[in-house]
Amino acid sequence: MLRLLCKSKPTSLSSYSPHYTCSTTQHSSTHLSVPQITPNSFTPSGFPLNSPNPLKTSTGFRFFHQYGRKSQFYAYENPVNRVFLPGCSLNWRNVGNWKGNGVGFMSVRSLVGGVTRGFCSESDREVMSYDVVIVGAGPAGLSAAIRLKQLCREKDVDLSVCVVEKGAEVGTHILSGNVFEPRALDELLPQWKQEGAPIDVPVSSDKFWFLTKDRAISFPSPFDNKGNYVISLSQLVRWLGEKAEELGVEVYPGFAASEILYDADDKVIGIATNDMGIAKDGSRRDNFQRGVELKGKSNYFLYMRVEAIGMLSGRNGFKSHTCASNYMHSPGRLTLLGEGCRGSLSEKMIKRYNLREKVQGQHQTYALGIKEVWEVDASKHEPGFVLHTLGWPLDNKTYGGSFLYHMKDRQVSIGLVVALNYHNPFLNPYEEFQKLKHHPAINRLLEGGTVLQYGARTLNEGGFQSIPYPVFPGGAIIGCSAGFLNVPKIKGTHTAMKSGMLAAEAAFDVLHGGLNMDAYWNNLKNSWIWEELYRARNYRPAFEYGLFPGLALSGLERYIFKGRFPVTLRHGKPDHEATDEAHLHSPIQYPKPDGTVSFDVPTSLYRSNTNHEHDQPPHLRLRDQSIPEHVNLPKYGGPESRYCPARVYE
User: Fold this and answer.
1) DSSP string computed for 142-191
2) DSSP per residue over 278-298, as a string?
């Protein structure tokens, strides 16, 4: 596993500096001896050939290396006889300590700069240490990584930054098709046009329709897409990943963060990736590999006041030379969670530290978005054309709507968003999407075309009212994990990127300036994210009263009060509590797919490029296996067989 993650071949310590001996120099201000390293051969244990090891202590060996200018020392404490460092340490500037696991390998801890690697004796997992660990290579995570490295260059500071991504490649978990507002990108990478960002189709037409079963009624568009672009978000994320790596960020796709790591004070110190090679019954298969721990570096370092623990050469061999020293507390290292909507680790942090209650935030509300990417006839393709709709096929009590974006290369992205607080337990979001494509105004575009991709994802729609306190001990939550989606715009990429940038700036001040991560919360409230989400706060809850009252209230908010309505509307029940019992509704009879415009679930799943081994653990586990049989089926008609667009509950 470690070799998969390393950027360079693991190398022993002796290969870095195979020759050492020590001589004595005078410290100009204190007239005390300080060891200086000059070439001479030494053994892998860190001591000269055929020499005793006088520095052996109850905890191991202690020796000191001086690298370069102004007596900047690097201390290592090794409780085993053999030293082995799998990986490399880059640009160390301050002191670190090494704690072994008793089997000849090292778990390395350093303070500033450089990646340290080793093994964790407690969990038998390999350990890689970074200054900042970012979970999720999406717009928020990569923007945070880029901004951190930009600040490092500006301030001449070396911080190691790692991004882990569950997708096999950066961008594979993001389906193409997005109307992109470049505001945050303009701030992050002002020269993005000159640097070849895959953003080259400006919005040329912005339409808004109200659909009935057979008609499309045009309304004034409320989306303000002038200056925006129709893009492939997956391509943009790949490009951001390349930019991050150019700046020195280490990006590791194919590794899902599965566990939060804590210290004795309940502070987050990193994450662990999932174990690989687990069978369906939980046993270890022949290809089993333990996950990797990605941790912040140690919270303590040795501060040399005058001179160092070292080795001084003399007539009778090497003598220990010990001086006074202090242990000082460092600011600690940070973990940023940018997993996307309802990220599993982010949700654990919100619950564990009561982050929503800390700011009296309301519960989060969600929607399900189902999307396809089509290749259409060239005569029907209008690059930059953007369409949003409300109404049919959804009923008047269900919030949602559709979108249709013309990208480049004859590609069109079409999708349906359904709020998950719908009342009818017989509603099937996937089948509603298939119905949408048969609307006369939509069908004529898709006829003769070919589906290229299919996918679905959840969206957080709670907006301003549901934002949790985004800072927890040892890190912060960024992007859609915190819920920065602008619901009426149906846009969250620009706010996700900006939140990542603000978190990065706060993290840099923590690590370099000794400030508090709470500055991230203050920066958010003083940013354009806060103003934008505040102005949009009443649109989603307005539709709690139904489609037409929601249209009236949102129109009043937009055109009369311009986002300054004196009252902040509250969300209704949590989504799962909004479902009616089955006896209050009749089953919905959906038409069979025609195989040309509408399709069955297995066909769509094939296009999603989702691959699962037969002999692997299920990614969904029921807390109480009796609920589907004794509650869901008799009371609600078994809605889990309909609300998942991949039918995983079956």
Assistant:
1) HHHHHHHHHHHHHHT----EEEEESSSSTTTTS-S-EEE-THHHHHH-TT
2) E-TTS-EEEEEE--EEEEEPP
What is the pTM assigned to this prediction? 0.79
Q: Which of 136, 59, 131 is nearest to 94 (CA)?
A: 131
Strand-pair category, 471-472 with 475-477: antiparallel
User: Quick one: residue 570, left, alpha or beta (phi over 0 = left, psi -120 to 50 = alpha)?
Assistant: beta
Contact 115, 129 (CB under 8 A): yes
Nearest partner of 260 among 436, 473, 425, 563, judged by Cα:
473
Cβ atoms of 493 and 484 within 8 Å: the answer is no
Q: How far, in Å, are 350, 476, 477, 520, 571 from residue 353 at the CA level?
A: 6, 12, 12, 17, 23
Span 365-380, pLDDT tens digits: 999 999 999 999 999 9
Q: Is-cis flag, bond preceding 222, omega within 30?
A: no
In whole angstroms, give the CA distance from residue 342 to residue 325: 47
pLDDT at 6: 41
Question: What are 301-324's pLDDT values in tens digits?
Answer: 333 333 333 333 333 443 333 333
Alpha-carbon Rg of the chain, whole angstroms? Answer: 29
Q: Assess whether pLDDT exceeds 80 at residue 15.
A: no
pLDDT at 613: 75
**Over pLDDT 70: what percentage of the chain?**
75
Beta strands in 399-447 (DSSP E): 400-406, 411-419
Q: Which residue, 241, 252, 304, 238, is CA-closest to 5?
A: 252
Residue corresponding to tokens 């596993």: 1
**Cα angle, residue 561 at apex, residues 557 and 565 outer, rounded to 5°:** 75
